[in-house]
Specification:
2 domains, alpha/beta, ten-stranded mixed β-sheet, UDP-N-acetylmuramoyl-L-alanine:D-glutamate ligase, Rossmann fold
Amino acid sequence: MSAIDAAAAATGIDSFGLMERAGAAAAAATLRLHPGALRFVVLCGPGNNGGDAYVAARHLLESGATVALFHLGDPAKLKGDAARARAGCALQGQELGLYRPGAGDVVIDGLFGAGLGRAVPAGVAALTKRVAEAGIAVLAIDLPSGVDGRTGKVLGAAFRARNTITFMTRKPGHLLMPGRELCGELEVFDIGIPARIIRAEAGGAIAENTPDAWKAVLPAEQLETHKYRRGHLVVFSGEADKTGAARMSAASGLKAGAGLVTIAAPDAAMAANAAHLTAVMLHAIDDAAELEDWLSDTRLQTFVLGPGFGIDARARAYVTALADRRLVLDADGISSFKDDPQQLFDLFRGEPRLVLTPHEGEFSRLFPDIGGDDALGKVDKALAAARRANAAIVYKGADTVIASPDGRALINTNAPAWLATAGSGDVLAGIIGGLLAQGLPAFEAAAAGVWLHGEAARRAGKGLTAEDLAVAVLPL
């Protein structure tokens, strides 16, 4: 956003005009959201976020509201647009530490915004605690102070906002946890920066995961088609007492649009699988040699390995045999390479055809140095892992990040809280496999699969089981 602001100014756009519109939008939102407030308490920081807050305070005062203003640092040291905004506000502020929450207060947080790069001062940390304990509603300008706009991490302490007002476009900290939760309800206001400048400066490398990010690569629907044109997905089953996970993956791949789905199972697990399958086919595979023979059928190009499979050398041998095919590696498949991740990465060079779907623990096992680097945010970690593995990475969680080796990353936001249930990851692996089988590139298949997964959870509703989730999957 700093680059966008500078580029806008370079084209002749009045930077103070942008600040004026931002502050006016914050004031208008405050009045709309809190018509019953007895007092608006405006907290002004030492930079342009504070400038927005001074403008908001002026508009609130002119509207007839009761307004109190508190500032961080010496306001006489403000420069540029922020100094001009302060000069235009008739209120005489007090030092921030003097504020004591009162009944009927609403706090407008204009201390730091999205540009904070270090832990908040002790006085601010103490204030966030007092405000939270008093149950005072907070409206944040741009981002709750204390939240890192790049990573969503809390830098020491942060306000928990009921509403956040930001401008032109969301920042990663609005979507990544815990920032997303601390923002409350988020609104984005257009303050007059041309979209062409935002596109040119932001680059589009990091975005929200929506259909716009991948719909261009979806296969065209054709009347004259057959099952093999829609792809053949193979899902590997575990032993006889661990077959359910593979069946959920297989069912989900079929629902996601694969033309055929086969479960490849040990001979001892064939009966357990056969008792529960109809549209999904079965094929017996007991070892890597049998798999190699089966792979002579060149129509077999897309595989899911991991759900319920077991963590062992057999998993590594199967993955080695599949090195020239498209593969979704999940759960036990990922953990099977924890002692030598590079062995896995070396198998899948060239055009990306591997999708890895780790949760936090699996990510740390496969990428211990990246996972343990506290200086990196979730997007940074996912991108570093994608480059190292030459794979599409689905870094799972409430804020799942999908990353590509070429530097693209998408943050997913459509997953409801009730998606966190046993077997949910098996369903996701199957959906991604079904999309890979239809010819989507690895990154786009992963991103579309994560989005479909979230939509299925919304359709299934609260209290869903993994079986409910698989049934609720719809093709793109």
